[in-house]
Amino acid sequence: MLSMRNSCQGHRFRGCKKHTLTFRSAVQLLIFLAVSVSIRAFAYDGLHRVEPTAVGLDPDGISAAILSLEETPGCWSVVITRHGALAAESYFSGQPEDLHAIWSVTKSVTSALSGIAIGEGLYPGVEAKMVDFLPPNLVPPENIKKLISLEHLLMMTSGLQWSEDEDWLPWVVSADPAEFILERPVDSLPGMSFNYSSAAAHLPSVMLETVLDTSVREFADARIFAQLGISDWSWDLDPQGYAFGGHGLHWRTEDLAKFGILFLREGAWEGRQLISSSWVEESTNPRFFWGDPWGALDELDYGYLWWTAEASGYPVFFAWGWGGQFSFCVPDLDLVVATAADGDVGSFLAERQEKAILEVIVDMVIPAVDPEILFRDGFDSGTNRNWGFSSADRAAEGGNALPAHPVDHRSSRKP
Fold first, then answer.
1. For a FRET experiment, which of 45, 62, 306, 364 has its CA 20 to 30 Å from that of 205?
2. Contact between residue 212 and residue 135 where contact means Cβ atoms under 8 Å apart
3. What is the pTM of this model?
């Protein structure tokens, strides 16, 4: 297994430079001081470690990719998994056990929890009307807002007026963030126009609180976190006690990888179906078909609080957080690349970091994967006696030539 660390004597920031409290860290500190944060401290259940060659990764190519990420300003760490095993990791600032603000990756977790709630019959489906699952004091009087469904919130098509650049700060420090966004006027019919809104993504969390007999954080811990062995985490609450649905979750870099593996496994983990396979498929499907490139990505699109794209000719889906927090999944390669990065930056630096990190993933990590090397099924995670073998070998043993993935139906969209 490749493992590189450059903790710079424990400093969390590149180059051991003194950290200056900036806009986003100041807001984060205010939220931390104002609300309770759940942090669980138990023994950490890590992924099984293997050598890169055991899962068809070129060690030289992966080493070059990691060195490139280390030289990328703002990139803090990377974890690379294939076939569910951790084959390479590096921590340029901090340690593996450090929790990172994963910003909008939280949205994809909120989506997963919404899917679980649907599977448990707490909602009739994505067509559930928002107003039917809000506390009475938050139900808006306007008839047009009564048309907003859970699906509209998950697709960023609620129609509620919003500017992510201009409105985020006054919203996040408001006394009641849910009320703040629900009082905004509607500038397009629900379902008609995509408008990225962290505030609208908060509302599915508020809705969940009304149908659960526990808190969203406790629900998330029981249904996902504890099942994945994610024992140390935190999730910020708004002043009304709701877990922020669009940001606020703090995970280790390895936890980002686990979350991606869960979705590559069609919502299953160690024999247990945590999320229905149908929800995994629905939420990671492109909904708009813009076909727009963004940096190294082609055909950038959006699902249910998940991003989708084409990368190096492969369909991909990924959870994406401000500044370069990624759980980047390549189903056809059974590959997950997780990164943590400095989210305490302005828009210009955030976009530069994100594009630089994605360029390494797309142009260096993916080409370092041998698609013909598969991981032997049924390996004993308590040992390291697991080796890759070719697609032809697998077929000769009576297995499928290629592994099944939750979004194989999108393979036809590859160029």
1. 45
2. no
3. 0.84
User: What residues contact residue 412 under an 8 Å CB cut-off, 6+ apart?
Assistant: none
Alpha helices (runs of H) in 124-273, residue ranges in sequence order: 150-154, 164-172, 177-182, 198-211, 216-220, 253-264
Contact assessment for residue 84 and residue 377, using Cβ atoms and an 8 Å cutoff: no
Could you report the per-residue pLDDT of 125-182, keeping only the tens digit for each? 999 999 999 999 999 999 999 999 999 999 999 999 999 999 999 999 999 999 999 9
Do strands 2-5 and 85-91 pair parallel, antiparallel, or not at all (unpaired)? parallel
Q: What is the pLDDT of residue 204?
A: 98
| Domains with residue ranges and CATH for the chain | 2-109+212-373 (3.40.710.10), 123-211 (no CATH)
What's the Cα-to-Cα distance from 185 to each of 11, 36, 129, 146, 237, rounded to whole Å? 45, 31, 18, 13, 25
Residue 87, H or E segment: strand 85-91
Is the alpha carbon torsion for 241, 245, 248, 249 positive or negative? positive
Rounded to 10 degrees, the C-alpha dihedral 206/128/329/405 comes to: 140
> Is 385 exposed, middle or buried, given 0-12, 13-18 or 19+ CB atoms closer than 10 A?
exposed
Question: Cβ distance 252 to 259 under 8 Å?
Answer: no
